[in-house]
Amino acid sequence: MSSQSAIGVFDSGLGGLSAVKEFLNVLPFEKIVYFGDTGRVPYGTRSREIINKYAFQDARFLQTHNVKMIVAACGTVSSVAGEALREKLSVPYTGVVNPTAYTAVRKTKNGKIGVIGTAATVGSHSYKLRLQKLNPGVKVFEQACPLFVSLVENGIIHRDDQITRLVVRRYMAELKDAGVDTVILGCTHFPLLREAISDYMGEGVTLVDSGYETANYAAKVLREQNLLTDDETVKTPSFFVSDTPEGFESVAGLFLGRDMEHTVTQIDIEQY
Amino acid sequence: MSSQSAIGVFDSGLGGLSAVKEFLNVLPFEKIVYFGDTGRVPYGTRSREIINKYAFQDARFLQTHNVKMIVAACGTVSSVAGEALREKLSVPYTGVVNPTAYTAVRKTKNGKIGVIGTAATVGSHSYKLRLQKLNPGVKVFEQACPLFVSLVENGIIHRDDQITRLVVRRYMAELKDAGVDTVILGCTHFPLLREAISDYMGEGVTLVDSGYETANYAAKVLREQNLLTDDETVKTPSFFVSDTPEGFESVAGLFLGRDMEHTVTQIDIEQY
User: Fold this and answer.
1) From the centroid of its chain, how far is CA B41?
2) Residues of A designated catalytic
3) CA neighbours within 13 Å on the CB side: how many for A5?
4) pTM (predicted TM-score)
5) Which one of A178, B11, B160, B238 has the fewest CB atoms closer than 10 angstroms to its CB?
6) Residue B50: which of A154, A167, A243 has the nearest Cβ?
């Protein structure tokens, strides 16, 4: 492992590509090795035990690529297995919770922060605990939005789609009534619903994107540890998935926001 | 394996319990061993390759219980891996496709049949092929309804829920316009949306429940092969899952339609 090594990014599926999009903007010279556990996605509805098991298999796979840092670009993994990963991995690790919480605490003016995520993320209270550690004065309102993942994966995301609007209202009404001025998008799928969420919550509410915050935080860590590459050529990411790569292009395009050159390889994650 | 052995039933998750409910009605003296792959659910969005791999692991696990028959109570597994399972298993096998198609062909009066299921089920055209083999004259209209599974798993199933009604309309409009008089509920989650689907399609449309048809078909096969138990005491099922059994009770109650005595055990399906 050296500063020329890749950054390993993983997610339960392809949602983490919304974070990769931010990495490519912030760190274009870094090589990204991404693993998406498409054969076992989603994690957000599963138990702590299973999420831990899967997360360590994912991280072990990335370590076979000699990565210099591991990023869990997944609200669920970061929330449930984050501490264990940080302790046990031999390379720098970050999830999405800490960098995102840090920004939310800085952004809020009225001290009322909403957190939306999967059932596992919200059930772990990871964001709430972190936010209140950073600032014991903030009030945190949590809401699990399990149907958001399905909406995104089925492309029902347009701000004018009646189903999208109704589901957003169903989940977000209590946060709106509570008067939050900042909402953490605590799942890498949720940035694709940003417009619909913003329409409902109103312009005065800041939406904090966990992928964006995490990419910036990772850049900071690597800089501090002198681990940024000095080879200033733009790298193309390598993608690995646990189901067949069929259909990867279209979904990847959706999350990455562009078509790009890359390779996709299927691996058997149960072997790690 | 003897007539006193259990019947093995499996599904990608807990949806197959809607079929177990029918088995308990039709075959109350039979012991049911159920496996739900809750650690890897859902299957309906995955590739043929992964669905095949998982289905054989599931069936191998059930065979360690010396079952006398294996039932894939899952539209996706039956559609994608059904033929391979039938060929390779050493005990009688049935999925849900053949018995359900058989009933649908008998029920239709105008020869127009709708099929709804997961993306994998509809993509396999398993129902369409079977229906047209049974009666080359029928017209078959297929529709993948991926969001239905999420609605059921999040309890958004009431006939008066605006989200439920909108999603039903979104998926079912083409089948209604086509004038189908019979609809196959080709996923074990869908019977929980029966009322909302029926409200939209109208009273004249017959909904065929794959779990009900499969339980009756399994009873017929076991009777013909002299494999029904002669011990006429009511048996309680044994349930196995691949995630923790936490939360099993409430979801099982939903699909089984009643609370009942049972055991739930977690197993590591990757070992099979």
Assistant:
1) 14
2) 74, 187
3) 20
4) 0.93
5) B160
6) A243
